[in-house]
Amino acid sequence: MIILGFESSCDETGVAAVCTERGLLAHALHTQIAMHQEYGGVVPELASRDHIRRVVPLTRQVLEEAGLGLAQVDAVAYTAGPGLAGALLVGASVAQSLAWSLDLPAIPIHHLEGHLLSPLLADPRPEFPFIALLVSGGHTQLMRVDGVGRYELLGETLDDAAGEAFDKSAKLLGLGYPGGPALSRLAEQGDAARFDLPRPMLHSGDLDFSFSGLKTAVLTRVKAAEKQGSLDEQTRADLSAATQAAIVDVLAAKSIKALKQTGLKRLVVAGGVGANSLLRSKLARALEPLKAQAYFPPLALCTDNGAMIAFAAAERVKHGLASLEKGSHAFTVRPRWDLADICAA
Question: Most buried residue, 53, 85, 255, 256, by CB count within 10 Å?
Fold first, then answer.
């Protein structure tokens, strides 16, 4: 069965074709980073308009690369939420219209489930059960995953997500947009030990996160350096390194705690922050004494993408969790959507 998937929840337009037997056939992605840089962040209306411009050419590209015609597609999947309402509506309306015109089923997919299952596209592929660290610009959660649709929330952020902490700290340091990758690059030239930044909730005894206090601490250091006239490039690099180290320390510690509490030996890291090299190396070292293993999606699939949506749909179909009815193509999107709502009984 071949599924064509669409992702348009924020500032990336993604399209992919996945076969339930052969896996990922082709995928294409357009990022809006260059467009939003001028504004220092995502402008929802501009994001929606750009999705409209990109989605059809990307679909043609995917079909050509996969060697497929529309007649060979068996189902269409799309991100129904969470995300920006206008952006979600673009992907949903294109997917539903295509499904209607071809008399195909349309499968709404939860954006976070796409991220959660994306490491299964990697080789080696993790086996169930595992702990998943979902870490991105909008979400930081620890989940126990016992199978497709079988998710248990263990802990989540109480305020800013880890990706937000990266981006907001980068903005305070004048690093522009997107902040997270820029901060990580500058951190390579810095001394993390120069600034003693807090590790919020590191010893809270639970698996929840909080990063707003870290952002405030960075603001305090920046203002102090500006007052002293010492916010030079090296100070920015040192603050970047200290900020990154604080975030990574908390993410790694909570992940290890989750593994110990559950007794599981597999950790899956998904979401944009999963591409961070310091996080990957720190987790690899921390897991050795536990004889546990970390799994990451391919770097190209860490950001939002159509492959994870088409793949999540394929997995739900294989496990009998997706409806393949070809009835009404009325639809809605859910900008706020709890992952628990899609869990199998």
Answer: 255
